[in-house]
Amino acid sequence: MRPRIVLAVAIVVHLGLGAALATGGLRPFYNDIRNRPGPAADFFAVYHAGRQVWTGRSPYARAERPAITPSHFAPFRYPPGVAWTLGAAVAKTRPWIAYGAWLVIVEGLLVVGVIRLRELVDDPRRLAWLRAAWLAFPPFFLELWMGQFTFVAAMLTFFAVLAWRRGRARRGAVAWAAACVLKLFPLALVPALALRRRAGALALMTIALAAALAPLLAIDGGVRGFFALNFGAPEAAEVHAGNFSLLALLYEGVTWVTGAAPDAAGWAVVARVVAWSLAALVAVAMWRGRRGDLGVAAAAALWLLPLMSKDSWEHHAVVALPAVALMAAAFAARPRHLALTAAAWALVALPSLLVALQRTPSTWYPDATWSPGVRVLYHAPHPLGALLGLGLCVAAMWRGDAAGARYDAPPQ
């Protein structure tokens, strides 16, 4: 198929998915649309935090006076600096207008990313298919529905890598530091940057993140509450139809095999072992591939989000877009690796089996009546896709043979 036709079809699919989101056509396919409050629950968490800043209250406090934010907002779990900057900015306008503006920004970032893919891929046919993979990616529309910030943080990391490859060290440092302040998962790139002696980027990130977290010291129980909310031990209630983490899959697998749910204390240990093992594996692989393509290391860092988090939501799959693009550039001369990269994309792109399994219109825990084997099957595709993507990156770094090292300009 000609590249122009591929791109035209992808644009039509993108517009069709957008229309389906607006008219409720995607509702049966996604737990966060069908069984959770919305839209914009996550965006309004930041909006609410901004309102709290303007009225002199803690951004983590639920009560809001006067009540302006729509009542279905999710708990605010970001660094307080996000409330004092982005939250305070969006809270100066009406909530639904602010949400609409955020949708335009996120869609605009997607378009910019699609255009800039030409910096990674020269072959017109492969470029067209890569752009199609971005445009026809259903979880992106779940990200829009939630009013989430994962895609923005992933794209800032992506733009940072592109800047570093072009020798624009300061621009890359700013983009990556902003990504780390907005969401913490881009910090997984720290070992790769340290090994490449990008001291400026690391210093800027440290200063920016310290400033973003510093207000926790002025909030009663702020430090403990923030880290408990984001890094606390996993709970059985967090294993549900909206959680597509590797840990949730393992939990359901153990329940299926043993016939009983894991012990809470023991499972907390398992969760830490899994997370730290993955982090250590990637860090060692980054050391092995320290002279190779930074893009592969960045892709590995992005894939870690749905694998290390105790609760990885379906919209977290958007990290696959920059990750797959960076992998496509690094594996340009390896058809088998490209095919496996496409398989990883497909596993995280496809909607879950919710549309076939849920019989009730809306319920908080639709999986309560499913058999253990069905729950395993339901949770499996997304974490397995992320594992495949991460495995390809780790293998490439371990061998030190990832193509594209020529693009990794020295720090300035």
What separation lies between the terminal Cα atoms?
42 Å
Shape: globular
What amount of the residues lies in strands? Answer: under 5%
Total of DSSP H or I helical runs spanning 4+ residues: 20
Instruction: Outline the biggest β-sheet.
Output: none
Label the structural class: mainly alpha
The number of distinct structural domains comes to 1
Q: What is the average per-residue confidence, as pLDDT, rounded to a whole number?
A: 93
Low-confidence stretches: 403-412
Determine Rg (CA atoms, Å).
21 Å
Order of helices and strands: HHHHHHHHHHHHHHHHHHHH
Number of strands: 0
Q: Helix fraction?
A: 55-70%
In short:
By secondary structure, this protein is mostly helical.
Description:
The protein has one domain (3-407). It contains 20 helices and no strands. It has helices at 3-23, 31-34, 41-54, 80-90, 95-116, 124-135, 138-146, 150-165, 169-182, 190-195, 199-213, 222-231, 246-258, 264-288, 294-308, 320-330, 335-349, 354-357, 372-379, 381-399. α8 (150-165) runs antiparallel to α15 (294-308), α9 packs parallel to α11 (199-213) and α17 (335-349) runs antiparallel to α20. The longest helix has 25 residues, at 264-288. It is globular and about 55 Å long.
